[in-house]
Amino acid sequence: MDNQNNSRSTEQHSNKVPEKKKIFLIINVTIRVLQSLFVFAVVLLLLGGALGMGIGMGYFAFLVEDTQPPTKEELQTEISDITEVSKMTYADGTNIAMIKSDLVRTRVDGEHISPLLKKAIISTEDEYFEEHKGVVPKAVIRALVSEATGMGGSSGGSTLTQQLVKQQILTDETTFKRKANEILLAYRIEKYFSKDEIVTTYLNVSPFGRNNKGENIAGVEEAAKGLFGKSANDLTLPQAAFIAGLPQSPIIYTPYSNTGALKADENLAYGMKRKDFVLFSMYREKAITKEEYEAAKSYDLKQDFQPQQESNQNTEGYLYNAVLEQATNVVMDINIEKAGIKKETLDGIGLSQYKDQARNEIQNRGYTIQSTIDQTVYDTMQNAVANFGYMLDDGYGAGFVETGNVLMDNKTGKIIGFVAGRDFNVSQSNHALDTVRQVGSTIKPISVYGPAIDQGMIGSESRLANYPTSYKGGGELTNATNSGTNTFDTVRHSLEWSYNIPVYHLNEAMKAQMGDDNFSYNNYLSKMNYPASDAWAYQSAPLGSVEATVLTQTNGFQTLANKGQYQKGYMIEKITDNSGKVIYEHKNTPVQVYSEATASIMNDMMRSVLDSKITTPFKNMSIGLNPAFANVDWIGKTGTTDAYKDAWLVVSTPTITLGSWTGYDIPTAMSPNSGDQNSAYLANLANAIYSVRPDLFGVGEKFTLSKDVIKSNVSSFTGEKPGTFTYNGGTYTAPGPNVESFYAKDGAPKSQYKFGYGGSDANYSAYWGRYATTTPPSSNAGSTTTPSSEKKEDKKKENSTPSSSEKNNN
């Protein structure tokens, strides 16, 4: 029994041993396999890491291959390129004003910034600032993984140096290429500049919210002054901690609203919590002791904030705003051109964005903007409107009558001076450059008579129908003082009286002959930058229903006074940056709109407008004020609109053009004498300018007919060449006396029965019928013997002068 038991026991024991060996073997194999796998994984990791690093380095090199490493000097300029005050000057370089910026900033040296503030910003924004070489690799990798996977939130990863690069050199777009360039430039900055230079620059360029005036501020000096009323070198620990917390989110953490008022406690709490975080960061980094941390945290900082103050008001007025606006448009056009974009393809939003960009550039780049404005002339014009503006008031409307005036050099288009309004405190609208109003009859020489002469359709003594007329489609058309003169008036006479009916007929004939309802605009006015509008095709357009600014209308008359050559009116002569480099300089780009012959004929006829004194007493008034004006060759044209809501007068000498508009800001009826009032005011304005710059007026110079003007001998009856012709079975002879008519091309045609533009068969029959014939028309209708009494009566009618109540024109 025992032997059996021993045998069984031995057998069981012998079975257990192999089982244990198996277990140990399995464990051993497993360990070896795991070890092998681990070694293999390590090898793969090393190989993959090496490969990944190689690929990464190659990709990095690819991303920055287009980046030209900047020199130390270039980096110095870029990282220190902060907002600097720009200025505007008169033509002679005398200062007009410093250009106010939306961002207030004062640069300070590192020695004038509190060490507490430097420690605060470093502890909070870049704890490894003193150790790294511009970049913390693990932070960059963490940030890139976060961006690529969307996991881990926004980890940032930017050192102070990288933030400086992003603020001053690159944009804040989130692309790998921008990040690679940021890293490259950060390393380069650390190579060239000390840690103190970097943190000082950062503190000078960073935004810090708003001050107690509601102004946007940047740089720690303005932050210290605007929040606590002291220099950045004198800040206490809690004050330094509060300022150091602002750059992360300036508008959220700033204690002030956009009015400069202290925020409510619930909104102020955001900045206070941020301040406490900064203090803790300083304590954690051992920049301050625990006692300093607790004392600063418990301090009631609210009591240190400055009380609200009024912001600096813009007291520069019309001139400041005008020069800034004109300069903004110049820079905007430059930037659009640089972008390779056609301006006309931009919508309103696109233009607005480019304009905002240009204005910001001007306000913050330390530019010097040299205007064309003559300081003496400008100041004199402002004194004149203050002294003589009362002449415009008539008691017909609400408020006082406003005015806009532009003085322009004919040869260049240079704006020498302007009057934007009578009182900036009453109306800030610039009535010279911006206000758009109906132009009245001042448009007639530019849009109808000038083009018709240029096309050879008429000469100065051609005849135009002036009989009662209706618009096509209905509606009576009248002159300012009558419903028609019941005759065919000459072009010169029609212009002197500023008749509507003759110019209407001429314009309709020109559109029909040229096959274009917008002929004048497309071929003439568009070249002078008159605004595009469907209104140019309206039947009422040549009578002045279209709208323009005083600047635009003055520029149109400059074209005629400058031998038909348009020079765009401009106010900005040159823009230079803070190093003296020229950013922009005006270049003349003349456009020949009318032939020289046409312009000289129009000038000759507009001399008659002023000499006749029919629509304006300007010339007599100006000579009465200053006898020297008798030697000035004045030409010009008046204009009024319905109910005398606008009164215009634009005059030129061979050297300058002076435009004037008067009216209420809200179009309101003025006195029927508003034209004469405007004339009296403009005569005084011109005299005031002459008193300080007589050289501007070209005393003794004359407008002369160009050599290519064709002087045709014409019948005063038909305005065409004298002679005999047959019409409808009768023979007619154009009666005399003969006169000289000026043509720009072709010369006068032979006389014909229907010699003028406009008029019905009945009108022509009545006109020819004024003159008695010796034989019936069928035999010798044109052989006339006109009674002397009829001749005198007709002549008297043409040359009669209206009463004062009839001197207004549309």
TrEMBL record:
It comes from the Bacteria. Residues 789-799 have a biased composition (Basic and acidic residues). GO terms for molecular function: peptidoglycan glycosyltransferase activity; serine-type D-Ala-D-Ala carboxypeptidase activity. GO terms for cellular component: outer membrane-bounded periplasmic space. Residues 772-782 have a biased composition (Polar residues). Residues 771-810 are annotated as: Disordered. InterPro entries: Beta-lactam/transpept-like (IPR012338), Glyco_trans_51 (IPR001264), Glycosyltr_51/Transpeptidase (IPR050396), Lysozyme-like_dom_sf (IPR023346), PBP_transglycosylase (IPR036950). Keywords: Carboxypeptidase, Cell membrane, Cell shape, Cell wall biogenesis/degradation, Glycosyltransferase, Hydrolase, Membrane, Multifunctional enzyme, Peptidoglycan synthesis, Protease, Transferase, Transmembrane, Transmembrane helix. GO terms for biological process: cell wall organization; peptidoglycan biosynthetic process; proteolysis; regulation of cell shape. The chain crosses the membrane at residues 37-62. It catalyses: Preferential cleavage: (Ac)2-L-Lys-D-Ala-|-D-Ala. Also transpeptidation of peptidyl-alanyl moieties that are N-acyl substituents of D-alanine; [GlcNAc-(1->4)-Mur2Ac(oyl-L-Ala-gamma-D-Glu-L-Lys-D-Ala-D-Ala)](n)-di-trans,octa-cis-undecaprenyl diphosphate + beta-D-GlcNAc-(1->4)-Mur2Ac(oyl-L-Ala-gamma-D-Glu-L-Lys-D-Ala-D-Ala)-di-trans,octa-cis-undecaprenyl diphosphate = [GlcNAc-(1->4)-Mur2Ac(oyl-L-Ala-gamma-D-Glu-L-Lys-D-Ala-D-Ala)](n+1)-di-trans,octa-cis-undecaprenyl diphosphate + di-trans,octa-cis-undecaprenyl diphosphate + H(+). PANTHER family: BINDING PROTEIN TRANSPEPTIDASE, PUTATIVE-RELATED (PTHR32282), PENICILLIN-BINDING PROTEIN 2A (PTHR32282:SF32). This is Penicillin-binding protein 1B.
